[in-house]
Amino acid sequence: MSETTRKKRAIVLFNLGGPDSPEAVEPFLFNLFNDPAIISLPNPFRFLLAKLISRRRAPIAREIYDHIGGKSPLLELTREQADALQAALNSEDDGYENRCFIAMRYWKPFADESAQAVKAWGADEQILLPLYPQFSTTTSGSSVKDWKRACHKVGLTAPIKTACCYPTNPGFVEASAEMIREGYDRALAKTVELGIDKPRVLFSAHGVPKAVITKRGDPYQSQIEKTSAAVVEKMAIEGLDWNVCYQSRVGPMEWIGPSTEHEIERAGREGKAIVVVPIAFVTEHSETLVELDIEYGELAHEKQVPVYERVRTVCSHPKFINGLVSVVKQTQHELDKKGSDDYTVESRGWWCPDEHSCANAKQPGLKSAGA
Ligand SMILES: C=CC1=C(C)c2cc3[nH]c(cc4nc(cc5[nH]c(cc1n2)c(C)c5CCC(=O)O)C(CCC(=O)O)=C4C)c(C)c3C=C
Ligand SMILES: [Fe+2]
Ligand SMILES: [Fe+2]
Fold first, then answer.
1. pLDDT per residue as tens digits for the range 197-254
2. What fold is seen in the domain 7-165+318-355?
3. Where does Fe(2+) bind (predicted)?
4. Architecture of domain 170-310 in CATH?
5. Which residue positions form the known binding site for Fe(2+)?
6. ipTM higher than 0.85?
7. How far is the CA of 87 from the centre of ligand 2 (A)?
């Protein structure tokens, strides 16, 4: 099909965004805490609280980013994913000319700038693709809402369909299982040398306050557990010892658990080797390179965990990119069948356009709830 007859399809990739310099740390944190999906207070209270928390947290966060050159690698790695996905989508002649755009929620490129770019390109349709396999109102929900606000602002009217979540997408699960298997084998070799028990796999996801699950009915925690169970099944290691835990707590509220720190301390007490897997992130950034590699690595050493192995995120693993291709195709199919996103669902406490998947996933955690 010729360029002129092909429909222009914009794929908009969402992620959190990270500071691109030490000076950007405080305004980045302000944007995060000023998001009603993170702190659900009316203004001016949210604005004032966001100012206060971001000012207090900035020195701690700057220290975190100092370990990785003062800035986040998230945008660079997301660009690599966008390029790989665009190439994979355009390798087939299925009637679409695809272009991937990136919109970050709390740092550049913001939704306004990217929506303007999608409009200038002349997109006929938009597929929104959060780079969060599991749906949370604090991440995907917030980004989608912000994107629709930006579309309205810049006058971008091309029909939209959102890929809500893909916690058990085969490409994502296979890429994860393959990478974990390599990490597991490395750890296993060390346990054989030390003459100790086989390693335990710890699926560590970014936590959220408990109220996000219990009050908003966010499906995030149960989708984390679904991903972990699917990956374990794919790994097919008989009698594998595994658990789900949650990292990155901030603030005084009660967060979902068990915490990753708690699980590391338990492994130390039990003399267990651990393989730590960041299961809610698909790229490297401060939460993996600093929190998991440095802070929790030191904690593991201090608590005498005999082997601490961290598995890298899937990034641009070809199987993960193929998984994203299938998510785009499925979402396109939904757009053709049902039309653009149903805006009425946004009035619910939790926001997710994928009624079926999320309605089924509303039960709070299975494995971690009992731990
Ligand atoms: C699944 C992904 C994420 C969820 C859910 C999430 C919820 C959430 N986060 C905070 C507070 C902070 N998060 C910070 C960094 C950060 N968070 C995510 C992802 C999720 N957050 C990522 C990918 C990153 C790293 C960004 C980068 O380095 O590029 C930070 C900043 C770092 C720090 O100061 O520790 C804060 C703060 C809350 C409060 C929350 C849910 C309510
Ligand atoms: Fe976060
Ligand atoms: Fe969903």
1. 999 999 999 999 999 998 888 889 999 999 999 999 999 999 999 999 999 898 889 9
2. Rossmann fold (3.40.50)
3. 206, 287
4. 3-Layer(aba) Sandwich (3.40)
5. 206, 287
6. yes
7. 30
